[in-house]
Amino acid sequence: MKEAQYYERLNDLEVRCLLCPQFCTIHNGKRGFCHARVNQNGVLYTEIYNRAMAANLDPIEKKPLYHFYPGSDIFSLGTRGCNQRCDFCQNWHMLQPEATTFEITAQRAVKEALDQRSVGIAYTYNEPLIWYEFVLECAELAKSRGLKNVLVTNGMINPEPFRRLAPFIDAMNIDVKSMEESFYKKICKSKLEPVLDTCRMAVEAGIHVEITNLVIPTLNDSPELISKLTDFVLSLGKSIPLHFSAYFPCYKMTIQPTPLSTLLRAKEIAEEKLYYVYLGNVRAAGVGDTRCPQCSNLLVKRSGYFTELKGIEDQKCVKCGRPVDLVLS
Ligand code: SF4
Predict the structure, then answer these.
(1) 215 near 178, Cβ under 8 Å?
(2) 1, 8, 15, 17: residue to mutate for ligand 1 pocket, most atoms within 8 A of CB
């Protein structure tokens, strides 16, 4: 355990956590909403500081990041807990305080990433922002050793801790689960605006950002909501990649899976305004390929997690010479 970095004492036995927009008030002996921070006699501790639950070398496309070192592998780490409670959570088994973890240190994580010739470290699987103290320490060390740091996140963090972490983060995939506050409140027990603020802060900080939206039939798949999301991503930048991901029933949600036609319609709507729109969790030809927005030349071919750079030379499209919107090694 390690003392948490962002909290205030309300009285001798109560504290308020200031790390994320849940702003939990935590009584003595109790945990916060994320199940990862505990109040012991008026001091807030993180219980997951040097604890991990999963460590793998993954294709970076799996995060998903399609425009950040495409085709590379990244050492991926996760632990337990989350500061949302989505009814469709795919990793709900990682929520519980009794979930089995193993010891990890920043030094060990960086050594593993270097030994495995990874492009960097991805903090992923569960919500990495509640792993704040470890991620900050590890990201700083990783950066000093020439590794990239990637967050795969729900975006729920307060501005002050985010700005402290941002200089060490190179890329983020941020879930924007809906453009409706009511969806966040009812389905995720969370809030929309802070997530949108994190997207804006990340872009302003110069971090490479990609956005993912899990499309759930009847809940967030209307053309109006897809248009609203598209306009938001456009406000961040026309070349910010948007990933529409197919939903499958999981945890508490029993709605039928997303039809391919719904995803294709979302792609069509978003492509009217954005350069790069992808479909994930689905088998369909070409929906993961990157094409030059100027001449449609195929730049990156993706099939499952097999990635092939094709029409690029000197960071430009070989056909029309337009600089590619990809971070390449
Ligand atoms: S990080 Fe955890 S304890 Fe802190 S406010 Fe968020 S959910 Fe609550």
Answers:
(1) no
(2) 17
